[in-house]
Amino acid sequence: MSCSITLKNISYSNKDNLLFKNINLSVGHEEKVAIIGSNGVGKSSLLKIIAGIEESFLGELYLFHHLIKDKKDYKKFRFEVGYLPQDISSFFLSPTVIEDVMFSLRTTGINKDEAYQKALEILEQLEILHLKDRIIYELSGGEQKIVALAGILITKPKILLLDEPTNALDEESEKRIIKILNSIKKSMIIISHHKSFIEQLTPTIYKLENKKLIDYK
Ligand SMILES: Nc1ncnc2c1ncn2[C@@H]1O[C@H](COP(=O)(O)OP(=O)(O)O)[C@@H](O)[C@H]1O
Ligand SMILES: [Mg+2]
């Protein structure tokens, strides 16, 4: 199987607290995998390891079959991986929706006019074109999550890492996110508490429990 993400014997401690030990996981090409688990078990920590943010783990992380040994290795794949953190309060770097979505693309070296056009396209695709000139911090939580997703998707990553993409969202926003994620063909790891949400996205669900990742039926 062609794997986008492979974890081999990943163990991680936060301070002196062992959160998980010898975790193995493979996410295939365009496969969607969900991880559930109680508060504080280490779901976000695991996703940060895969996102290249948390480096103090044991074991091996592979992206597209390449062993990632350090930040320098990870940098080669930085445009292949889109990471939506659990807390998006410090995610946005520009005041307005269009500027922020363009900004992501500008970091890849694309010129301003082209970035503007591509930003319009992605906003249209996610059905938030009407928000383009709005100040991000004046939007609802659900709208902000979709803007954040636009900023991630515009660089066309092959992998999406989504940490509780629907936490604190109303039913309507949750439905929109389900529709968007189901329309995207990419490898994904989605973390959520919401079983009903997850089940509408993928049959492949694991639970982080007792420091292990176990099949969840
Ligand atoms: N920056 C931090 N400093 C100290 N402890 C932390 C930090 N971030 C998370 N933790 C602790 O690590 C554990 C796992 O956190 P996290 O990975 O966020 O869990 P989850 O996403 O499953 O709720 C929790 O007990 C949390 O309190
Ligand atoms: Mg978390």
TrEMBL record:
Q: Which residues cross the membrane?
A: none
The record's listing under PROSITE patterns reads: ABC_TRANSPORTER_2
Q: Where in the numbering of this chain does the ABC transporter domain appear? A: 5-214
Among its keywords, does the record have Transport?
Answer: yes
**One of the record's GO cellular component terms:** ATP-binding cassette (ABC) transporter complex
- Keywords of the record: ATP-binding, Nucleotide-binding, Transport
Q: Which Pfam families match?
A: ABC_tran (PF00005)
Q: Name one GO molecular function term.
A: ATPase-coupled transmembrane transporter activity
Q: What protein name applies here? A: Cobalt/nickel ECF transporter CbiMNQO, A component, ATP-binding protein CbiO
Organism in which the protein naturally occurs = Arcobacter defluvii
| UniProt gene name | cbiO
